[in-house]
Design a protein that fits this description.
Rossmann fold; disordered N terminus
Length: about 220
């Protein structure tokens, strides 16, 4: 999965303004954090997959229900579309990115291992290597939360799992553990873990302390 998507030279460029990627499972508060930070620091909130491919994603949902490999490929490719757009935005603004390569890779690896009743590849495995032709963020913030609190938050949002991944995530604790471990095995630095069990304001303050080092 971490192989080059395109036959091109590495595109990682020196960014005028940083890309701050926020990662974590649904319910950890990553979207809230990314949005709040974008407002506090006059940055741009950006979601992967980007809005210009959401229509394609929605039209392919019936296909994704029965073809998990196609779904994974779509999300992996959407990171490249997001990267291209972010490089332009970073010329003028800080980008606060709601999910990126870590999520695509972690979900893809973990679901495959669960389906095949296998353990995750070891931490040194090349599958965790960041693609040479994908723009790296400046820093990744990973939000962690107890499963009890995560489910409570999802319930309070009155949201039900709708995608195959979300339904399986709710059902299998092993899958959740695999995804979190995969996040941490991606060969990328710096990745900073934050306990998301506090209030949104407290989590934002913790994130600000981290981000200040890169502004």
């Amino acid at each position: 999965m971490a192989e080059k998507m395109f036959n091109s030279d590495p595109i990682n460029m020196t960014l005028k303004h940083p890309i701050i990627a926020i990662e974590g499972l649904d319910g950890t508060g990553k979207s809230t954090l990314a949005y709040n930070l974008s407002k506090t620091l006059n940055g741009v909130y950006f979601h992967a997959p980007p809005s210009n491919v959401v229509g394609i994603k929605n039209s392919l949902k019936p296909v994704f229900q029965h073809n998990s490999e196609l779904r994974k490929a779509f999300y992996l490719m959407s990171n490249y579309i997001a990267a291209h757009r972010m490089q332009d935005i970073c010329k003028e603004n800080v980008v606060f990115l709601d999910r990126y390569w870590h999520s695509s890779l972690a979900f893809g690896i973990s679901e495959k291992c669960l389906d095949e009743d296998k353990s995750l590849p070891p931490p040194e495995h090349e599958i965790y290597t960041w693609p040479e032709d994908l723009q790296k963020p400046t820093v990744v913030i990973l939000l962690e939360l107890s499963e009890e609190e995560r489910l409570r938050r999802l319930k309070n949002r009155h949201e039900k799992p709708v995608t195959p991944s979300e339904k399986r995530l709710e059902k299998y604790s092993l899958l959740r553990d695999m995804i979190i471990n995969s996040y941490k095995r991606v060969k990328f630095s710096p990745l900073v873990v934050i306990d998301a069990g506090e209030s949104p304001e407290a989590v934002s303050r913790k994130a600000m302390e981290i981000i200040e080092n890169y502004l």
